[in-house]
């Protein structure tokens, strides 16, 4: 998550995607928000997989007879 925030702050935020003054600011903000959303969803997907792997592995260790 910290890496994603660093990417947003250092790479995405300074970009000028469209220089048209009328709708350019709104389009620029929308594209940057979509990039942030994609980074957030990918981070949540990775986190979810790690948590599921941890708990399912722990549950299998508990249910196995010795």
What is the count of structural domains? 1
Helix share bin: over 70%
Unreliable segments of 5+ consecutive residues: none
Give the biggest sheet. none
**Judging from the principal axes of the Cα atoms, what is the shape?**
rod-shaped
User: Counting H and I runs of at least 4 residues, what is the number of helices?
Assistant: 2
Instruction: Report the β-strand fraction as a percent range.
Output: under 5%
Structural class: mainly alpha
Query: Secondary-structure element order, as H and E?
Result: HH
Taking all Cα atoms into account, the compactness measure Rg is 20 Å
Distance from N terminus to C terminus (CA atoms, Å) equals 40 Å
Number of strands: 0
In round numbers, the mean pLDDT is 76
Give a verbal description of the structure.
This protein is 77% helix and 0% strand. The chain is rod-shaped and about 65 Å long. It has helices at 2-12, 24-63. It has one domain (2-63). The protein is mainly alpha-helical and 66 residues long. It is built from 2 helices and no strands. The model has no long low-confidence stretch (mean pLDDT 76).
């Amino acid at each position: 998550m910290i890496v994603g925030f660093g990417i947003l702050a250092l790479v995405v935020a300074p970009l000028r995607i469209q220089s048209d003054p009328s709708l350019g600011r709104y389009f620029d903000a929308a594209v940057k928000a979509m990039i942030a959303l994609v980074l957030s969803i990918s981070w949540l997907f990775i986190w979810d997989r790690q948590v599921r792997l941890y708990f399912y592995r722990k549950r299998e260790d508990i249910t196995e007879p010795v």
